[in-house]
Amino acid sequence: MTSKNGKQMKKIVGAVDRNGKTWWTSLGVAFVNDDGSLNLRFDYLPTSPGTTVQVRDFDEKDDAKAA
Q: What is the pTM of this model?
């Protein structure tokens, strides 16, 4: 997904395993810099030590929600 200023955006998600099931939570967005590094903007910070944080590409479903 591309932001209004032309920067590539990715989503930040957190995954927590509870009782054998994985729960996913949106944590914020990441902006890709010209050198390939990322700027992260968190809307939510996980407090569980078992949370795995991932930076992922937006998928078509996410693009439709943003439109």
A: 0.75
